[in-house]
Amino acid sequence: MPKPIYVIGHRNPDTDSIGAAIAYAQFKNLQGESHVRPARAGELNAESRFVLKHFHVPAPELLSDATGLDLILVDHSEIGQALPNIEQARVHEILEHHRMGDLRTPEPILIHCEPVGATATLIAERYFSSRLTPSPAMAGLMIAAILSDTVGFRSPTTSDKDRDVAARLAPLAGLDLEDFDRRLREIRTQATASLSAAAILGSDFKEFHMGELRLGIGQVEVMGADALAHRKQDILTEMREVLEARGLALVILMVTDIDAQASDLWVVGDRLDVAEQAFGPISQGRVHLPGCLSRKKQVVPPLEEVLARRGA
Amino acid sequence: MPKPIYVIGHRNPDTDSIGAAIAYAQFKNLQGESHVRPARAGELNAESRFVLKHFHVPAPELLSDATGLDLILVDHSEIGQALPNIEQARVHEILEHHRMGDLRTPEPILIHCEPVGATATLIAERYFSSRLTPSPAMAGLMIAAILSDTVGFRSPTTSDKDRDVAARLAPLAGLDLEDFDRRLREIRTQATASLSAAAILGSDFKEFHMGELRLGIGQVEVMGADALAHRKQDILTEMREVLEARGLALVILMVTDIDAQASDLWVVGDRLDVAEQAFGPISQGRVHLPGCLSRKKQVVPPLEEVLARRGA
User: Fold this and answer.
1) Which of A77, A86, A246, B72 would staple A101 via disulfide (CB 3.0–4.6 Å)?
2) Interface size, chain A vs chain B, as Cβ–Cβ contacts under 8 Å
3) Ordered alpha helix ranges (H), chain B
4) Which residue intervals define the domain DHHA2 in the entry (chains A, B) (predicted)?
5) Dist CA B277 CA B2 (whole Å)
């Protein structure tokens, strides 16, 4: 039997890294390369676990070291994101949608990087251009990967190709895209709610320097305004700790409900006056902002404006 | 009018870098991107000049600095092979057939590297998969690029895809592949014959250390055994100079005629005995070897064997 070639995504795998690895290995198998197998470079997250269970697909083999292995890389090309000792592996192909990373091979290999929303989109294209029909389970995995990486086509990385491919896969998987997207978001919301307060706050936290003030603003996506209600005291305590440890004037957590097209801003710190002037009255540490989804476009600018006006 | 995007190959452009740039720009034009134009990063070689003239295609614009330009790179991805100041350009796409080089872009872009014989093969595939028919001139340029880079399908880098694509392009260009390959080799032979002796010897010259001895072996491809006959004294003088300057025991030039499937070995140095034992009697500084085409497989091993036997 020939040595296996493993298709594998990045460490801390997300649903695109898992789904792309499985669907591409299956594609290779359909092309007669039976020694190609899917693998993963870390534990499954809650969303990926749900998706595999939903489509009755077993979890790919867990690998922890690349030394001496034959690999096809999907969804990454940075050494730091790859299996340890990736330089000691033989990489046969790279298929991904980020900017080209620092991995180089001694010989020419097939490399396909394309700025689409998900690696799974590129793999679905391979099926279609090779006139191979993905099984319902593979179509489902690729849809899940695309919806996950594009946040249901809402991310600015979403391309027309992602939409087209997903629309073509949906009937094959027997899925309604909107409905399935909602289920994936439910799963992510539940998983978020069960994380530690530090993990929730830290998952997407950035510091901003505005004039004299330093602010920290995190964002977390949930489904339903009350998804994190039972964790509120816990998270506010964590926010105060970060505030003090880093000497920030304000710590804000955007609890964003994409479905409701709104964010709850949770705010702690000495300069609540600045936040109130920017967003209105803060009651019990929170202010509800209908229509607010973007930290960059809808939260940072009003704060900067308030501070600029005061500085003037 | 939008800013032009130039499709450009490597410095010292060969026929693949020229043909791929022109054919890909034309492909983009057919897709409605009229601001895409071909360019080149250096003077045309004799073969490329012949090919452009043959298909009545004007030479692409000559660029000398990448600063501030919008570029699509074909046939290279090494900074050292690209236009000067390539880091100051905006690179939109990379399409090539070598191993991925050291060029990195700040954002994700389309990168397609595939180990085929010529970049033109990848571009012809784009035409076909987009159901666009290349014009006779474009088909001819792509054929010329493929024949040139694969040495008429003889190079070990040749893939089935190169053969398939060329066979599909040939009727579109109205060309007989064998016949056109012969003409390209004639052009290259004439161009070689007109180079300086140093350029002929140096075009593909490698040093080898075998036990105590250091040898230099060059190779040049010609058509017809007598193609370099009128340059022989000139080249032998150059070979003796290199021998002395580098302190080599032997300098060998393989004058290879692929058509005749044979090489003439021209030999100078103090250890003609070693060469004679490996290849037979050397008369007037040369020995004719029918069937000998590969330096790596047919010239280096017999020399190593002779020296190993003597050392034993």
Assistant:
1) A77
2) 57
3) 15-30, 46-54, 119-129, 136-149, 160-173, 177-193, 197-202, 232-246, 272-279, 300-311
4) 182-307
5) 67
pLDDT at A20 over 60: yes
Half-sphere exposure of B43 (CA within 13 A, CB side): 2
Q: How many CB atoms lie within 10 A of CB B206?
A: 12
Question: A111 to chain B: which residues are within 8 Å by CB?
Answer: 100, 111-114
| Helix, strand or coil, per DSSP, at residue B236 | helix
pLDDT tens-digit map of B41-56 = 999 999 999 999 999 9
pLDDT interval class at A203 (50, 70, 90): confident
Asked whether the CA dihedral A302, A304, A307, A310 is positive or negative, the reply is negative
Distance to chain B for A233, nearest Cα, Å? 40
Domains B5-189 and B195-311 belong to one CATH topology: no
pLDDT at A3 over 70: yes
Confidence of residue B308 (pLDDT cuts 50, 70, 90): confident
B182 is written with which tokens? 């012969």
Identify the residue whose tokens are 């035409």: B127
Q: What is the pLDDT of residues A41-91, one digit of tens each?
A: 999 999 999 999 999 999 999 999 999 999 999 999 999 999 999 999 999
d(CA B272, CA B287): 11
* B25's tokens: 């720009």
Residue of A nearest to B107 (CA): A99
Instruction: Pull the structure tokens for residue A101.
Output: 């990373």
Residue A135 in 3-state DSSP? coil
State whether A113 and B115 contact (CB < 8 Å).
no
**Residues 6+ positions from B215 with CB-CB distance below 8 Å:** B207, B208, B248, B249, B250, B251, B252, B303
- The answer to whether residue B287 scores a pLDDT higher than 70 is yes
* Other Cβ atoms within 10 Å of B176 Cβ, number: 11
Contact at CB, A104 and B99, closer than 8 angstroms: yes
What single DSSP character describes residue A297? I
Provide the residue type at A294 as one letter: S
- Chain A residues touching residue B109 (CB < 8 angstroms): 99-100, 113, 115
**CB count, 10 Å around CB of A59?**
15
Q: Which CATH architecture is the domain A5-189 placed in?
A: Alpha-Beta Complex (3.90)
- Tokens found for residue B85: 């100041």
Residue whose token pair is 């990385």: A157
Which backbone phi and psi does A136 adopt, to 5 degrees?
A: -55, -40
Confidence of residue B2 (pLDDT cuts 50, 70, 90): confident
The pLDDT, as a whole number, for residue B38 is: 98
Question: To which H or E segment does residue A115 belong?
Answer: none
Identity of the residue numbered A25: A
For chain A, give every domain's residue range: 5-189, 195-311
Q: In the structure, what pLDDT confidence band is assigned to residue B72 with cuts at 50, 70 and 90? A: very high
The reply to whether CATH 3.30.70.2860 applies to domain B195-311 is no
- Checking if the pLDDT of B309 tops 90, the result is no
Position of tokens 């710590």? A251
Residue A159 has pLDDT above 70, yes or no: yes
